Amino acid sequence: MIVAGSARAHDLGIAANIAVLDAAAHLKAFARMDGAMLGSIDLSIGKARTSALFQISSEAVWDYCKPGAPAHNLEASNGGLMPFPGGLPVAAADGTIIGAIGVSGGAPSQDLDIAEAAVAALIG
């Protein structure tokens, strides 16, 4: 996943941080591409953690915590969530969530694109 994500980031001209977590939201793998912003390290891990904790994309968590939503301010829970694009759950062939990936370094849509490429490489 790290290799595939890094390759996609390179194709996009992005220096990204890529974090892979297990289903319990523990860091399993991490890569910081040369030139990737230091501030994005925490963001990549946070996006993956948000996705792992809720078993949905980090972006989808925003629907629950935005102003007026049922769980307004949810992003302040669990030590802080990152409810924007770039974090995706990773599922086994049977649908069981086995982890999550988080990417930060580009625009939110680019981070999501990189994460999708990494997940696609795993599922083949």
UniProtKB/TrEMBL annotation:
Gene3D superfamilies: Haem-degrading domain
Domain of life: Bacteria
Pfam families: HbpS-like (PF03928)
PANTHER family xref list: PROTEIN GLCG, SLR1406 PROTEIN
Protein name: Glycolate utilization protein
Organism field: Sphingomonas sanxanigenens DSM 19645 = NX02
